[in-house]
Amino acid sequence: MKPGYGEVLIAEGELERADDEQRLIEEFRGQLDAGLWAAVPMTAHASQREARMVRSFNDIPRDAERVIFFPRAAGGG
Amino acid sequence: MLLALAATAIVALALLADLIAPWIEQVWARHRARRRRVPSVIYDPGRELRAEQRARALLRSCVGEEEWAMYHDLGFIRVWGGQAGGFGDAGGAPYAYLVYPHRPIVAYVPQTHRLLNEYCVAFPDDTAPYGSARLPDSDDVLAKWMALTGDERRLISTANMHLPGRQLDPARVTRDLWRLSQWERARMRRAAASEEIDAAP
Q: What is the reported pTM?
C-alpha cells in the first residue's frame, strides 16, 4: 500500500521454483527491513475472513495467494 | 615594506581562520539552501481518486462480503474483538471495534452500545512518495482490519488510547451503531426473503 497510489505489485512468483522463492524471500526481507508490516488475508473458520500477521517468510502459509505490506502502525493524535 | 604588510596580513588571516571559517561555512550553507530546488508534489485529485479505487478493490478482495457491504453502505467496518474473556471494561462481554478511515478505532459493547475507548492509530509512510504520508481511505481501513484481526494486542498497544469523545462525537458513533443495527436487520430480512423464495415449490 502506498500513499497516492494504493496497491503496488512488488514481486510475484511460484514457490515451487527455487529462484522464484529466493527472490520472494529477498523482497519479503527488504520490505520488513524497510519497516513495513506484512499480513496474509485468509479465510478462517465458518468462512470468516481475517488476516495473519507474518514476521518471517516461514510464517507465510504455503497456499497463500499474496502477502500485503503496509506501513507499521503508530500512535495517532 | 610591502612584503612586511603582506606577511602580517597572512599571519592575521591564519590566526583568525578559526573564527572566520565557521562563519563562511554558514553563509555558504545558507546560500546553497536558498538556491536548492525543493521538489514539490502537486496535489492531483485524479491520482488520489485512482488510488482510492485501487484501495477499494483491494479491501473488497480481502475482507468478507458482509464487511465489504458494511463499508460500502455505512462507511465503516465492525471488527469483533478477539481477546478471550472480553474487554477489561466490558466485564467479560463480547466487544467490537468500529473502524473508520483516518479516524480513531472505537471499542464498544455490542449488547448495550456502550462506548469503551478510542484508539488513535495511523499508518504513516515516511517516504511520502506523492508528498503525503497518508494512505488512501480504504487502505487505511484495510490496514486497521488486518492489524486488528491479525494481531489485535499489538495494534492496541501501539495506539494512543483515549476515552470516548476525544476525537469522535459520541452522539455520532451512537448514531452509527443504530445505523449498523438497522442495516443488519434489513440484511437479515432480505436473506430470509430470498430463502423463502428459494424454498417455494
A: 0.80
